[in-house]
């Protein structure tokens, strides 16, 4: 690259090349420069927001220098890259994370302090980047951190939503959604005005025969929208590698925005066209684990996938390699089925545009993609109506039909006369209207398919994708258990615990190799270590208690057992069972004598999480939690023995102070429904124990930390079907303790019982699909065991230390190395610092 530029020119550029700050003074100079010039403020009107902005802009400059170096090193290395396609990246805040990953937080804290600010306050000014719903989006964010930290040449591709997940307000006990307009100041992104792609929708397919007799299909007409790239630097920990997250924003294409209309006075209609284009990347769909099937969502998917593939193909073409080399240079990972159209779009590019024959194109395609499944819940599996799809993407539908035809023909050859099998595995479901089963398309078009925890990966092989295991053989299906990044979820969220661990282990190397935590185990019985350990937990609980007091007015005792369930509200996650358990505890306390009460372990039950706006049952669960808290928290008989708190607007930055403050966290999904769960890992890593079902990653956590350190309860996945069946035939009487709870709700103890009728109905006439009644007795008795265990502080300290020392497996670094070795076949690239 260098030799193409004349030496004098090169020398001048090199002489003035941007340099990074690397001392406190240089950092301060950059902060002040940004405050005074970029922001046009001064010492006299620099508030916390301006100071945050100055610090963030200084940090951004530093990251971008490493970002440039990284991109150059990756181009020179010319190795295979991985592209992680995800409709969600739940990034949270960046400043603190970037300071820690670049290991400059210490002097930055001092630096801003000498400028008159406290770093915590500046960090707190930052708006969460909330471009995701929950676990799936946060997993993508942890993976980006690990990919950069492990120096893999990797890009993320997503959508730049103008509105992230809504903000939740609780008004009169009910969830109210408020739009999350987060882009008014976002220092972490760079618009790339030179990187645009025109994306087409609708129209028709023109088919003609070439002179050589071959048929050509051309997709024509329709609407055109422009995709504009925004780049977000992703700094690794302990490396200069700074990868790229490219987010696409939609705008009218230059041809589309109709100046004719504009000038001729048809202003409104021209603005409507502009808005239609901008609508594509306007909002994140706020649904977790549910498919809604709206046309605008399909438009988002195609817009993002087509722009990303155009970009990936353009980069590949620069190397002038043969097309058959494509899978040696490019791996594309599909985060759930949302980007499955990429398979079809690559076929369209190779066949229609590059004129490869179908078989060659298909071989390239199926060598390139990997598909990660994140759920077995039938209501979450994406299916697109054929008429809707045909109208929006006519050529893609033809390609899907061809993929399906060739696939079914090959199945028929291998399993002749099994008509049932053919209709079961067809990409097209013969319903009315017909629908496209996106998961099947993703499996057929990928080299590898993985689940996200052992149980989950087994379940997909034996239930929803069973036929495909028979067709493709078991090796196509694999497991990569999820993980979380210890940089954000230990070092950043719990700096005191991280520092204590460093003191014991001698260095922060565990943040790069989490298995080193095993070195803590020998201190598990050391009394003074236990004390330091528990003191940190106590201070984290005090901080949460203060937050609760400040935001809700509720006083909680930081010595009480903090019992936390924070995650999206969903019937399968069973927050309803938790709040029923709280009611049951309340009733027992009320029935006790003063003397008995004095012996009880005080509890604070903390809930948090958003309900999808259209998910009425989830909203009713929130209302029950807030109703119970109003009654219990004001009952003088109860005092500190039980408090119930709903934390408004649970998000990444709140998770960062909740995880370190838990004694117990709840991961209590009906067995077989939670694919993995990742907050379970975060809570244990921060020195909390968990109560949970034999589901998702809870099972592997148990294997790693030992079953004496986890409170497991409830029925097993293998029994769920029979239990549901029994309910349907009315053979299951309601658990007596649960019956008492329902009666109390119906008596009106928590307000107008009609409000909660849906919840009761689900347990009775509804057939108790999530088996709350079946698990209730063991849930309550396990909570009793928790109370007993909590009384023995030394044993509790011992168990939490041992548990943390055995959590090395759950780093997202391990997960990413498994993807790199077994699915992507990629190697790290060294970037000089
Ligand atoms: N998950 Br599908 C989501 O957060 N949203 C979704 O739409 C779907 C799955 C979650 C799983 O529920 C959770 O168990 C898993 O840990 C997470 O994806 C990451 O794999």
TrEMBL record:
The protein's UniProt keywords, in alphabetical order, are: Allosteric enzyme, Carbohydrate metabolism, Glycosyltransferase, Pyridoxal phosphate, Transferase
E.C. code: 2.4.1.1
Q: Which residues carry this modification: N6-(pyridoxal phosphate)lysine?
A: 682
Q: Which Gene3D superfamilies match?
A: Glycogen Phosphorylase B
Name what cofactor the protein needs. pyridoxal 5'-phosphate
A Pfam family name for this chain? Phosphorylase
- Biological process, per Gene Ontology: glycogen catabolic process
Q: Which GO terms describe its molecular function?
A: glycogen phosphorylase activity; pyridoxal phosphate binding
The record's top EC class is transferase
> Is Aminoacyl-tRNA synthetase there in the keyword field?
no
State the source organism's domain of life.
Answer: Eukaryota
Reaction(s) the record says it catalyses:
[(1->4)-alpha-D-glucosyl](n) + phosphate = [(1->4)-alpha-D-glucosyl](n-1) + alpha-D-glucose 1-phosphate
Q: Which Gene Ontology CC terms are recorded?
A: cytoplasm
Q: What does this protein do?
A: Allosteric enzyme that catalyzes the rate-limiting step in glycogen catabolism, the phosphorolytic cleavage of glycogen to produce glucose-1-phosphate, and plays a central role in maintaining cellular and organismal glucose homeostasis.
Family recorded in the similarity comment: Belongs to the glycogen phosphorylase family.
Q: What is this protein called?
A: Alpha-1,4 glucan phosphorylase
The organism's taxonomy opens as: Eukaryota, Fungi, Dikarya, Ascomycota, Pezizomycotina
Q: Which gene encodes it?
A: GPH1
């Amino acid at each position: 690259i260098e030799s193409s530029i004349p030496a004098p020119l090169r020398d001048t550029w090199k002489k003035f090349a941007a340099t990074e700050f690397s001392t406190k003074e240089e950092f301060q100079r950059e902060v002040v420069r940004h405050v005074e010039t970029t922001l046009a403020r001064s010492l006299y009107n620099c508030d916390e927001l301006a100071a945050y902005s100055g610090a963030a802009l200084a940090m951004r400059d530093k990251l971008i220098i490493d970002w440039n170096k990284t991109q150059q090193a990756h181009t020179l290395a010319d190795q295979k890259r991985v592209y992680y396609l995800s409709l969600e990246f739940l990034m949270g805040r960046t400043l603190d994370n970037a300071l820690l990953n670049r290991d400059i937080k210490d002097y930055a804290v001092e630096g801003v302090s000498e400028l008159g600010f406290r770093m915590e306050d500046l960090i707190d000014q930052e708006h969460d980047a909330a471009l995701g719903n929950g676990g799936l989006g946060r997993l993508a964010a942890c993976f980006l951190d690990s990919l950069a930290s492990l120096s893999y040449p990797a890009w993320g591709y997503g959508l730049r939503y103008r509105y992230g997940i809504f903000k939740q307000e609780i008004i009169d006990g009910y969830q109210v959604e408020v739009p999350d307009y987060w882009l008014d100041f976002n220092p972490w992104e760079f618009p790339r005005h030179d990187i645009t792609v025109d994306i087409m929708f609708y129209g028709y397919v023109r088919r003609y025969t070439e002179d050589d007799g071959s048929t050509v299909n051309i997709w024509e007409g329709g609407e055109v929208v422009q995709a504009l790239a925004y780049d977000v630097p992703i700094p690794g920990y302990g490396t200069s590698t700074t990868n790229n997250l490219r987010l696409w924003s939609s705008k009218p294409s230059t041809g589309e925005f109709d100046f004719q209309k504009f000038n001729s006075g048809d202003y409104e209609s021209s603005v409507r066209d502009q808005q239609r284009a901008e609508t594509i990347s306007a909002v994140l769909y706020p649904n977790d684990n549910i498919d809604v099937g709206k046309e605008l969502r399909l438009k988002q998917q195609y817009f993002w996938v087509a722009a990303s593939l155009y970009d990936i193909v353009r980069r590949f073409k620069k190397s002038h390699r043969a097309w058959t080399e494509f899978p040696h240079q490019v791996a594309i990972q599909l985060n759930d089925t949302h980007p499955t159209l990429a398979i079809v779009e690559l076929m369209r590019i190779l066949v229609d545009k590059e004129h490869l024959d179908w078989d060659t194109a298909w071989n390239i395609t199926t060598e390139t993609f990997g598909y990660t499944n994140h759920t077995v819940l039938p209501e979450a599996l994406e299916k697109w109506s054929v008429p809707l799809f045909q109208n929006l993407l006519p050529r893609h539908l033809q390609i899907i039909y061809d993929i399906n035809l060739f696939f079914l023909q090959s199945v028929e050859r291998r399993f002749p006369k099994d008509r049932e099998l053919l209709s079961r595995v067809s990409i097209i479901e013969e319903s009315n209207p017909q629908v496209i089963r996106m998961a099947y398309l993703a499996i057929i078009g990928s080299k590898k398919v993985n689940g996200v925890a052992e149980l989950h990966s087994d379940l997909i092989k034996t239930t929803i994708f069973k036929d495909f295991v028979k067709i493709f053989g078991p090796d196509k299906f694999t497991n990569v258990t999820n993980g979380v990044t210890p940089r954000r979820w230990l070092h950043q969220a719990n700096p005191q615990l991280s520092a204590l661990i460093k003191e014991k282990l001698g260095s922060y190397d565990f943040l790069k190799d989490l298995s080193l935590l095993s070195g803590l185990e020998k201190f598990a019985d050391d009394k003074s270590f236990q004390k330091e350990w528990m003191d940190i937990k106590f201070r984290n609980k005090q901080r949460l208690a203060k937050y609760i007091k400040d935001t809700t007015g509720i006083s909680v005792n930081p010595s009480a057992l903090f019992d936390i369930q924070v995650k999206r509200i969903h019937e399968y996650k069973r927050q309803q069972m938790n709040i029923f358990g709280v009611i049951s505890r309340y009733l027992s306390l009320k029935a006790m004598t003063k003397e008995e009460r004095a012996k009880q372990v005080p509890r604070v039950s903390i809930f948090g999480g958003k309900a999808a706006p259209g998910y009425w049952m989830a909203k009713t669960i929130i209302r029950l939690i807030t109703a119970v808290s109003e009654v219990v928290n004001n009952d003088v008989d109860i005092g500190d023995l039980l408090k119930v708190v709903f934390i408004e607007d649970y998000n990444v930055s709140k998770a960062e102070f909740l995880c370190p403050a838990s004694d117990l966290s709840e991961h209590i999904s009906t067995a077989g429904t939670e694919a993995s769960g990742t907050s379970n890992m975060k809570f244990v890593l921060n020195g909390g124990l968990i109560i949970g079902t034999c589901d998702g990653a809870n099972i592997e956590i148990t294997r790693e930390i030992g079953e004496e350190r986890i409170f497991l309860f409830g029925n097993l996945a293998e029994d769920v079907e029979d239990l549901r069946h029994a309910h349907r035939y009315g053979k299951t009487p309601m658990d007596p303790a649960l019956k008492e709870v329902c009666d109390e709700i119906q008596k009106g103890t928590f307000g107008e019982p009609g409000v909660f009728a849906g919840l009761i109905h689900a347990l009775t006439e509804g057939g108790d699909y999530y088996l709350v009644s079946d698990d209730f007795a063991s849930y309550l008795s396990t909570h009793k065991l928790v109370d007993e265990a909590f009384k023995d502080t030394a044993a509790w300290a011992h168990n939490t230390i041992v548990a943390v020392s055995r959590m090395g497996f759950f780093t997202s670094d391990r997960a990413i190395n498994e993807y790199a070795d077994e699915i992507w076949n990629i190697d790290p690239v060294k970037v000089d610092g």
